[in-house]
Design brief:
Elements (H helix, E strand, L loop, with lengths): L1 H37 L14 H14 L3 H15 L9 H24 L5 H12 L4
Length: 138
């Protein structure tokens, strides 16, 4: 029995070490690609972006107040993307925000339900708000 446990533990440790080695190789490959690209960082590339004209004008007004232009903003965003390895701001759709709000309300209702099951309420606490809202004698 003890030898079986030792064998399983050895297999688990071996699998973890192999995964760590694989991750290290991936990281080295990724890092080497970035380092190779850094040699060319002084060469400027041109990027063309299609944007709604009204949005562009509104953005330029805001950026002008800040004291930068669109090019500086795009460069700052791309540098943050490379540095942080993620989009430097939250991307959320209305549907995502709605799902998040529903999840939050569900968690709140679970907390209230837990409270209800652990507490005794009086008749007035339960039916008082209904009586006031609907002017109904319960």
């Amino acid at each position: 029995m003890a030898s079986q446990i030792n064998n399983i533990a050895s297999q688990i440790i071996l699998a973890i070490v192999q995964q760590l080695q694989y991750n290290a190789v991936l990281y080295e490959c990724h890092l080497s690609k970035i380092l190779k690209l850094e040699r060319y960082c002084n060469i400027m590339a041109t990027v063309t972006v299609r944007v709604d004209d009204c949005i562009k004008e509104q953005a330029e007004i805001i950026l002008d107040d800040i004291g930068i232009n669109l090019t500086t903003l795009f460069n700052a965003c791309l540098k943050a993307l490379v540095r942080e390895q993620r989009v430097p701001f939250e991307l959320a759709s209305t549907e995502f925000a709605l799902r998040k709000a529903i999840r939050k309300k569900l968690e709140e209702s679970k907390a209230v339900a837990a409270d209800i099951t652990n507490r005794r309420y009086t008749h007035e606490e339960i039916f008082g708000p209904l009586r006031e809202k609907y002017n109904y004698g319960l």
